[in-house]
Specification:
36% of the residues lie in helices and 9% in strands. By secondary structure, it is α/β, with parallel strands linked by helices.
């Protein structure tokens, strides 16, 4: 199959497993062990990114699991993401190849555009991962945006599919308007959209749009606030794990609050990628398929929606990286 056709070069399922392990904020020293243990207890979906800074360690964990016969490579769904500094089509393939090298893989099951934000290029040889700030040694260290059309980045992403480096491509942190524009011109439509989604940010319209257009939705931060409290982007009062409704629902189901929140996500038809650094929590987060929330329970949890977004570049970029960069408005 050649570029320019409108048919995918292979017939593939477009949906990742319903529960995955998110590798964001897992310490590098712990990543290999956590990945191997996750595969041991049954995870087949790993969500990574070059920006997380632990892909080489994740690759070590994957190799250990494969060597131990815990699964085959074809059993795994491994996702990674194109960082903002590599949006220029000249740099997309090199970024993907670096990720593949770090993970020790021949192909990715899914490669996502991490943010609809193009930043000034930083050579892989100079600093990797490059992060948000262009030059940390500058008098005023800050992120520096550049004008690279999202459509041009997507064309380069499509080339990765034709080349066999990735099997599916998708996007993160896109809204309906960007998705609609992409669908009007993409040769390969996005297989997956990954966004922040939890009961405080239910995004019903976005979820419906994706369903109606054949785009699978993966929810990051499916537990909401906990990952953001240490970063100062949320407080413990924002956590749903102690919310009376969630606690009461968990008690009624004989489950933990975290399992109720994750089950809510799975039952809506999304995949969820909770992060944990505690091996004991791996099994708990995966154990979601022998209970069901009732319609009333689902509706009550959905009614907690406040449009509360914790991961918002329009807030954190200016505060942390010196550049106002809204994307959701």
């Amino acid at each position: 199959m050649q570029p320019g056709t409108t048919t995918l070069p292979m017939t593939l399922e477009s949906s990742p497993p319903a529960v995955g392990l998110g590798l964001w904020k897992i310490d590098r020293a712990e990543t290999a062990t956590m990945v191997e243990e996750a595969i041991r207890v049954g995870y087949r979906h790993l969500d990574s990114a070059s920006d997380y800074g632990n892909e080489a360690e994740a690759g070590t964990g994957i190799r250990a699991a494969l060597s131990a016969g815990l699964c085959r490579r074809d059993d795994l769904w491994v996702t990674s993401k194109l960082w903002n500094t590599y949006h220029d089509p000249r740099h997309v393939r090199a970024a993907a190849e670096r990720t593949l090298n770090d993970l020790g893989l021949d192909y990715l099951d899914l490669y996502l555009v991490h943010f609809p934000i193009a930043l000034r290029y930083v050579s892989i040889d100079d600093r990797y991962p490059p992060g948000w700030i262009h030059d940390p040694s500058a008098d005023r260290p800050r992120m520096e945006t550049v004008r690279v059309p999202l459509a041009e980045t997507w064309l380069a992403m499509e080339e990765l599919v034709w080349a066999g480096l990735v099997r599916r491509i998708g996007v993160c942190n896109y809204g309906v308007s960007l998705l609609r524009d992409m669908l009007s011109q993409a040769r390969i439509p996005p297989a997956v959209l990954q966004v922040e989604m939890h009961p405080l940010l239910a995004q019903e319209k976005l979820l419906r749009f994706c369903r109606e257009n054949g785009i699978h939705l993966t929810a990051f931060s499916p537990l909401g606030a906990p990952s953001y409290v240490p970063l100062g982007m949320a407080t413990s009062a924002d956590s749903l794990l102690g919310h009376p409704l969630v606690v009461a629902t968990a008690r009624a189901c004989g489950r933990t609050p975290a399992q109720v929140l994750l089950r809510w996500g799975v039952q809506r038809g999304t995949s969820v990628i909770p992060k944990t650094s505690q091996p004991a929590r791996l099994g708990e987060n995966l154990d979601l398929f022998n209970f069901t929330l009732s319609g009333d329970q689902m509706a009550a949890i959905s009614a907690l929606d406040q449009g509360r977004r914790f991961n918002d570049p329009g807030v954190f970029c200016e505060a942390a990286f010196g550049n106002f960069c809204p994307i959701y408005e």
